[in-house]
Specification:
This protein is of the alpha+beta class. It has helices at residues 113-116, 121-192; strands at 2-4, 8-15, 20-31, 36-37, 46-51, 57-63, 66-72, 77-85, 97-106. It is a single-pass type I membrane protein.
Length: 196
């Protein structure tokens, strides 16, 4: 994505609790003379801020023009990940734009292939088995989180449907009472004018 030199861009990531989140980014600066993005943005750094669903700041750190950040969520919900350059130019003069390459990985456990190339096959199988067990735990945690979200959504839907039903009943009663009132008023009008 593209951002201005002093602009802040935020991404919302829905994360279950106790989950590792890793992000890799690379910032490229716009070269006015060449009319293209440079391979890197020398001298620029990026502020990375991560906020939990309750509003607590989980991570706030300055990195270079490219880097890796990681955090572990302690509660489930929508975490807000914000990136902003550390440009010190005034807003009026900070007309340069940046291209940010961002890769966010949620719940990923990296598997070290160099360890796998160990000579002892038992250790290799054991390491692969431990990695699979970690993946199973992560998948189970993700399923539990999705189940909680589905239950919350179902309750909200049922409450909304109930409210709509009561509103329809109230509207019907109001329309019927207005109809009776209009009929009575019209009848009284006809009687007073001696048309009936």
């Amino acid at each position: 994505f593209h951002i201005g030199e002093r602009e802040e861009k935020c991404i919302i990531e829905d994360v279950p609790s106790d989950t590792l989140v890793m992000g890799n980014y690379k910032a490229q600066g716009w070269d006015i003379h060449k009319q293209e993005f440079l391979q890197s943005a020398p001298g620029l750094g990026m502020f990375v801020t991560v906020t939990t669903p309750s509003g607590d700041v989980l991570l706030s750190k300055l990195y270079g023009p490219q880097g890796t950040f990681s955090f572990t969520s302690y509660m489930s919900g929508e975490h807000i990940i914000c990136l902003q350059s550390n440009s010190t130019r005034f807003v009026a003069f900070a007309g340069s734009k940046l291209r940010i390459h961002l890769d966010i990985r949620v719940g990923e456990h990296f598997f070290d292939e160099s360890v796998v190339q160990a000579k002892d096959k038992v250790d290799e199988v054991n390491l692969r088995l431990e990695h699979l067990i970690e993946e199973i735990h992560h998948i189970s945690k993700e399923q539990n989180y999705e189940r909680e979200r589905e239950e919350k959504f179902r309750k909200t839907s049922e409450e909304t449907n109930s409210n709509i039903l009561w509103w329809a009943i109230v509207q019907t009663l109001i329309l019927i009472s207005i109809g009776f009132w209009q009929m009575k008023s019209l009848r009284d009008f006809f009687i007073s004018k001696k048309l009936v």
